[in-house]
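REQUEST FORM: STRUCTURE PREDICTION
Request ID: SP-0412
Submitted by: Lab K.M.
Chain count: 1
Length (residues): 137
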Amino acid sequence: MKSSFVSSTAITIVAALALAASTGAASARGWHSSRTFHGPYRSVNVSRGYEHGGGQASGYRNVQVSHGHGYDASFNRSCANSTCSRNASLETNSGKEWSRSGSITNNHNGSVSYDRTTTGPNGNEVTRTGTVSYDPH
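STATUS: Completed
RESULT:
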């Protein structure tokens, strides 16, 4: 279990550092769409979108089904000053919510610090923090 956690943390570190290296002052680009699907017993409305640029990205999805079922989901992520952050949330029409947030920072000393928090629909929260060393060469 620990080996899997360390591997996933290492992959996250590499991805975050690559994202931090590729960020720059760019204009925002993105797309948005909205569609309705009709079936014999229900219809589904889906709206979604994504924007990125300048070291930031965000997106959303709203799904509504007949009879009041549906959800809203969104995410944001950004990188600046050796730190990459992200958060995401999902809320159902019945009011249940899930969320997660986290950040990773290159300490410029051969280590990376991370923290992440996940919150479940009953308000239970799990937070993990740590520092991972790497060979900068």
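NOTES: Strands lie at 29-38, 43-53, 56-65, 69-80, 83-92, 97-106, 111-119, 125-133.
Reviewed by: T.R.
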